[in-house]
From TrEMBL:
Cofactor: heme
Entry keyword set: Heme, Iron, Membrane, Metal-binding, Monooxygenase, Oxidoreductase, Transmembrane, Transmembrane helix
Top-level taxon: Eukaryota
Keyword Methyltransferase on entry: no
Entry protein name: Cytochrome P450 716B1
The species this protein was found in: Triticum urartu (Red wild einkorn)
GO MF entries: heme binding; iron ion binding; monooxygenase activity; oxidoreductase activity, acting on paired donors, with incorporation or reduction of molecular oxygen
Gene3D superfamilies the record matches: Cytochrome P450
GO biological process: sterol metabolic process
Gene responsible for this protein: LOC125533987
Pfam families, per the entry: p450
UniProt pathway annotation: Plant hormone biosynthesis; Hormone biosynthesis
Length: 489
């Protein structure tokens, strides 16, 4: 009963504060210029309706209903804040490139990932941190990662797929991408530390989008504790690698090696005055973000590729042929190379079409730093702006027969693809904040699918082929499949 009383008190106080905030904002705004729509009930707004729709895989329909009713620009209230929904290619371009907006993550995300992450930085700080991360993701460094990722994928399939009659795809893909990221980002080898970090990572994710009330029985509390343990591991790794880099400096080599991990790379970066580009806190916070970003998107993408290919024999057969042609020119056990990935054009088109139909990120929020206008409507300072990928991805005027799975949309010579307006395919975002890990995700996906389609056949265990979002898409029961080894050609 004590816990219940505390929760009720917190809800009342929070609700009252947010309601006052909403009323104050509404009075300050010039009502005649605000977009059509309604802020709904205080605090609740339209949040429950959107969350309910997303959990039933109806989020896209919910958004489209609003657009049909109010147009591509409308006001509403989401998660306790007045919000403007922007939809369409022109709105995407405006939002991605305008300097009047910064990103805004829920408080729970900030508490768990840290205050110095790239997700909440803007201006010069964002450019500095993004530039540091891109240093690790330079093309010449990415080429060096292909062989290491190949080794992780081979081990994963041998240990978790080979000899099994059934597997559950999503948790296995998540463990695979976690192992890849642990090795390349943190230099963590297989063992107890990596296994413990994997467990904490799962618990951390469970409460990352929860109500940020730090009480013992809440998901947020468990997530926060797991985040603390994970952070201590990364802090210790950072200290150890800092000592190693100082030894290198003493020997006249202060730069990170070409094959170094992310933390070593970031520690070695210097500005024009020879000072470190990032602090220890910034390195740890952004390593936490990289762990999340590099894990979820790729694992979800590959899971839904497996899901689609189970019922698309023609596309699967074409992919198998593409990968067998690549394998013909390689010796037994020889790792894939950067040049091999360049030949996997069909596989990447299948990946892009999967991202179009089921984008891992449903949408995202920005915050207005000043009063600004779009399409004749006022977006008041401090309001949220919400955009979603599905609006353009499933627009029949942009993508012909959008419900049809058609990888040929992404052929460079295909006229339909070239005619699509810019900022229509936004699975990775766009503008200065476009996902910096696109190429890393591409490597993970292509290497994994190469070995998967050559070694296994599979069929879905569940007749009901559905998925929900919470907030990432998740297929029914994690996508259990029956598997069998594919005979050697």
């Amino acid at each position: 009963m004590d816990y219940l009383a505390i929760v009720v008190a917190l809800v009342v106080v929070t609700a009252s504060s947010i309601a006052i905030h909403l009323l104050a904002r509404a009075k300050k705004a010039r009502p005649g210029n605000l977009p059509p729509g309604s802020l709904g009930l205080p605090v609740i707004g339209q949040s429950l309706g959107l969350l309910r729709a997303m959990r039933g895989d109806g989020g896209s329909r919910w958004i489209q209903d609003r657009i049909d009713r109010y147009g591509p620009v409308s006001k509403l209230s989401l998660f306790g804040r007045p919000t403007v929904l922007l939809a369409g290619p022109a709105a995407n371009k405006f939002l991605f490139f305008s300097g009047a907006f910064s990103t805004r993550q829920p408080r729970s995300v900030q508490r768990i990932l840290g205050e110095k992450s790239i997700l909440d930085l803007h201006g010069a700080d964002h450019r500095r941190v993004r530039g540091a991360l891109l240093e690790f993701l330079r093309p010449d460094m990415l080429k060096a990662y292909v062989g290491r990722i190949d080794g992780e994928v081979r081990r994963h399939l041998q240990e978790n797929w080979a000899g099994r009659a059934t597997v559950t795809v999503l948790p296995l893909m998540k463990r695979l991408t976690f192992d890849i990221i642990s090795a390349l980002l943190f230099g963590l080898e297989r063992g107890a530390v990596r296994d413990a970090l994997a467990g904490d990572f799962v618990r951390m994710i469970e409460g990352i989008w929860a109500v940020p009330v730090n009480l013992p029985f809440t998901a947020f509390s468990r997530s926060l504790k797991a985040s603390g343990r994970a952070r201590r591991v990364l802090q210790e790794i950072t200290r150890e690698k800092k000592k190693a880099s100082q030894v290198e400096v003493e020997h006249g080599n202060g730069k990170a090696s070409r094959n170094s991990d992310l933390i070593t790379c970031l520690l070695g970066l210097r500005d024009g005055h020879g000072q470190r580009l990032l602090t220890d806190e910034e390195i740890v916070d952004n390593a936490m973000v990289a762990l999340i970003a590099g894990h979820d998107t790729s694992s979800i993408l590959m899971t839904f590729m497996v899901r689609h290919l189970a019922n698309d024999d023609a596309t699967l057969a074409a992919m198998v042929q593409e990968h067998e042609e690549i394998a013909k020119n390689k010796g037994d056990g020889e790792a894939l190379t950067w040049e091999d990935l360049a030949k996997m054009k069909l596989t990447w088109r299948v990946a892009q079409e999967t991202l179009r139909v089921v984008p891992p990120i449903f949408g995202n929020f920005r915050r207005a730093l000043e009063d600004t206008e779009f399409d004749g409507y006022l977006i008041p300072k401090g309001w949220q702006v919400f955009w979603t990928a599905n609006v353009t991805h499933m627009d029949a005027s942009i993508f012909h027969e959008p419900a049809k799975f058609d990888p040929s949309r992404f052929e460079t010579e295909n006229q339909r693809a070239s005619a699509a307006p810019p900022f229509s395919f936004v699975a990775f975002g766009g503008g200065p904040r476009i996902c910096p890990g696109i190429e890393f995700s591409r490597i993970e996906t292509l290497v994994t699918m190469h070995h998967l389609v050559r070694q296994f056949r599979w069929k879905l265990c569940c007749k009901e082929d559905t998925f929900v979002r919470d907030p990432m898409p998740s297929p029914l029961l994690g996508l259990p499949v029956q598997i069998e080894h594919r005979a050697s050609p």
